[in-house]
Amino acid sequence: xSLNRSWTRTFAALTLAAPLLVLGPQATADSLSDVEFFGRWxxxxxxxxxxxxxAHAGLERVQSAVKAGDYALAKRRLLDYYRARPAASAGRxxxxxxxxxxxxxxxxxxxxxxxxxxxKTLTVGPEESTVTADVTSSVTGGRTGFFLMSxxxxxxxxxxxxxxxxSGKPTLRLTLADGSVKTLHPSHDTYIWAGHPGTEYGDKxxxxxxxxxTGPFSAATRKAYLQFDLAGLPKVTKAELSLxxxxxxxxxxxxxxxxxxxxxDSRTWSNTVQYTYSWQGDPGGFDWxxxxxxxxEYLVQxxxxxxxxxxxxxxxxxxxxxxxxxxxxLMTDFVNDADAYDPDEGAGSYPNSLSVARRVQxxxxxxxxxxxxxxxxxxxxxxxxxxLNRSGVHLEESVQGAPNWKQTQKVALLHTAVYFPEFFRxxxxxxxxVSSLEGQLxxxxxxxxGYWEATDGYARSYASQYVDIALFMREHGIEFSTTTKAKLxxxxxxxxxxTFPNGYxxxxxxxxxxxxxxxLRRLGELLGDxxxxxxxTSGASGQEPAHTSSLYPDTRVAVSxxxxxxxxxxxRLNADRGSHSHADxxxxxxxxxxxxxxxxxxxFNYSSDPRAQWLRKSTEAHNTIEIDNRAQDSxxxxxxxxxxANPAFDLIGAHTEASxxxxxxxxxxxxxxxxxxxxxxxxxxxxxxxxxxxxxxxxSEASPSLRSGQKAATTAFGxxxxxxxxxxxxxxxxxxxxxxxxxxxxxxVEDAEYASYVKxxxxxxxxxxxxxxxxxxxxxxxxxxxxxxxxxPTHQATALGLRLGERGDAVYYKSWTTRASRSFGSYTFDxxxxxxxxxxxxxxxxxxxxxSIELDGAILVTSPEPVKDLAVEVGADGTVRxxxxxxxxxxxxxxxxxxxxxxxxxxxxxxxxVPFHRDGRLIYAAAAx
Length: 929
Prior knowledge:
- With 929 residues, the protein is of the alpha+beta class.
- The chain folds into four domains: 1-103 and 308-423, Glycosyltransferase (Alpha/alpha barrel); 109-285; 570-593 and 603-786, Beta-galactosidase, Chain A, domain 5, CATH 2.70.98.70; 819-829 and 836-929.
- Helix 3 (60-67) packs antiparallel against helix 4 (71-84) and helix 8 packs parallel to helix 10.
C-alpha cells in the first residue's frame, strides 16, 4: 500500500470519527492566539476547543504538549509532524513562471502580470558609457517599448541620452528574417517624476532614472520610457537595445519590456498607469496595499501570491534555501501586515474572498514544497497554518461575487479540506465545497448552456477550473452528479461553438486572445465527448461536430460558421450581458481565411487610463452602432430573436434597446461561401434627429484605407485574409478612418484605426453593409448599389445590387415587415429575404419565408407552400444542390417546388441525390412539407 493511499484512507476514517469528539467552543476566524488554535485543556476537558482533530494519527505528541500547556513544544512537534507526513496532492500554482521574480520579488519589487516584463539590470557609472541588452524576447513577444527603473533605492541618478540628442540616441538594432539589419531610434521617449507629477519631459536631452526613500516611491522617484515603431517590418529574429548614459555614482537600472504606447509630449507621472513598484531596502517591506496610480489589478494580484509558484518551484529544483526563505518571509510578512482582523469581513479575508481563495491555492501548493525546508521555523509554520485555517473558516461561510468568485472560493475550500484533514472542520468543508460547486454550476449558466458572465476569458477559465476540480475530486474518491456533468457538457459546447476556427477565443467582454483548444480537449476527455476532443485537437482526433452554426437564445448569442477548419469563416452576433461585459450589444466579431478580420478590440487593463475606459466602457469601441455619442445601457431589453440555419447560409435577427433613444435591430445574412450582409434598422422613440455612428474595427496591423466614392474600407494585411466593408447609400453617410486603440493582450495596447460611418436622421433609418472577406488582397472593384423597392421606404424593405468582383454579381433583398410581393430592379419576390448571385462558374439563390421569385417576369422559384428556408446552387457541371428545412423529395409538379435550371443534369437534396422532373426551363425535385 502506498503512503498516499494509506493517508487518504486514514482521512476517510477520521471523516466519520470526527463528529464524535466533544470539544469546547472554538474561536471564530477573527483572530487566533496559540490557545485558540491549539486549544486549552483544563480539568480533563477542552476549555477552548482546538482547530485540530488530535485523533488524527501522528498528532498525539502535539496534543500532549498542548494539554501540558507547552505551546512552544506543540509548535515544534507540529512542524515535525508535517515534515514527516507523506506527500499529498496539493493542487497547482496559478503561475509557474514570472519574469524577474527570483531576483526581484525577494527585494520587494513587484510587477503586475505581463504589464512590464523584466529583462535584465544595466549598470552605468560616472563615466558615460553605452550599455547593450538583448531584447529579442520582448520584441518578438509584441512589446516594442521599454521601461527603466532604479534597481536599488539610493541617491544616485542615472541619465540616459534621449532621442532629442544628435549623438548617443537610444538604438534598437533589429536582425530581420531575411538576414538584413534595421536600426531604429525611438519614436517617443521621456521620463516621469513623482515630485513633479504634472510635468512632461519629452523634449529633454536626457532621461532620468532615480529612486530612494521608503514606500513604493517618493518625490525623488523618476522612471524612463522608450517606444519604437516597428510597423511594416518583417519578422524580427534578434533585437538589441543600446543606451548611452552615466550616473553620479555606480547605478544599477532595471530594464523592462513594455507593451504600452504613449506620446512623449503628454506623458506625465499623473497620467501614467504604472505596473512596477519597489519597496527595496524598506524595513517594512510590502504593505500589501495598492500604491497611488497603480492599476487596480495591483491589489488583486499581489495578495494572491502569484509569485509563490516560481519561488517554490525554484527551491524544489535547486534546493537553494534563499528561495525558500524569500517565500516564507513573504508569507509571514503578509500574515503580520494584512491578515489581521478586518471589522467588515474578519481575519483571513484580505482583500476579498476571491483573493483569499487564490492565495490559499498558491499557499497550499507552496506548503507541500516548503514543509521540509530548514528555513521553515516552528513559529513561521504555525503562523502559516493559522492563516490557512482562518481562510478555511472564511471560505466556508463566504459565498460572494460573480460565478468565478464563488467557484474559486469553494475550490480552495475543498483543497484545504483534502490537504489538511487534520483541521477539525475539514469534513464539513469538504461536504460544503462539493455541494456548493454542484449548485454553482447550475446557477452560473443559462438553460441553453451559456455562461452567465459575458466574457469568453472568464467562461474559459471557469470551465477549465471545473475540469481541474473534477479530476482532483476523482483522485480522492468524489464524483460530480450525472446532472452536474450534463450541465458541464452544455457549458463546454457553448465554449466550443464560440471558438474561432483557429482554436482561439473570440475575445468578447473583459478578455484577451487565448487558445481554447487545450480546455476543450480536457473537457472532452473528462466528459467522453468526441466532438469536443476534435475541436480541442484541431481535428487530430475525435469526431468533427455534426453542426456548424449555433444559437444560444438565453445567453443571447448566435454564431454562424462555415466549418471547423482554420480557413473557414465565422461570425458572432451578441446581445449578451452580465459581469465583465462591454457595452457592445449587436456587436459583430468576424473571422475568415485564418484571422479575425473584424475583431473585438480587447481590454488593456482595469485602470482609469482613457484607452482602457474607451475599450471597456464605450459602444464606439465595438462593431455596432452608437447612438447620440452615448454608451449603451445594458439593463434595457434585447434578444437574439431568430436564427435560420441552412447548410448554405444562416440568417440571424436580433434587437436591443440598450442603445438609448432608439430600438436597434440588426439582421445578418451569413453565407457559408464567406460573405456577410448586415442590415440595421433604427427606430427612435421620438421624432427628433439622432446621430448614428456605425463602426467597424480592425487590428493594428490591418493598415485600412478608405476608398472615395463607395466609401468602402479595406484592410491590407501583407498575407492571408483581408476584408472590404462596403456601405450602401455612401452619399448619405460621412465616412472616416478614426484613431482608436487595440489591446492584443492584457497590459498591451496599440494604436488602431477603425472605419466610422455617421448619419444624422429623424424618424426611422437604416444602414446596409456588405462585409466581404477575401483570400489575399481586397478587390477594389467591389461595390454596393441601392435598388429602389417601388415607393417602399428602406425601413420597411431594402434591396441592394452587389458587385462582388470575381464572385460575380448578386442582388440582396430584406423585408422588415410581413411577407408581401414586391418588385425591385428585375426581381419580384414575396418572401422575407432573397439573395441571388450569378457568375461564370455557378449560380445560387437563397430564400427565406417565401413562395415565389421571378426575374424579368420569368420564374426562378415557385412553391405551392411557403418555404421556411431554401438554398439552390446550380453548378457549371449541371449539378443542382438544394438545401432547406422541411423539404422532402418530390418530382410531382402539383406539389413540388419549381426551380429554373434548364441545364440540370443531377439534383442533390440536403446532401442526397434525388430524381427530378423537367418541364422546359423548370425542374421539380423537392416539396415543402
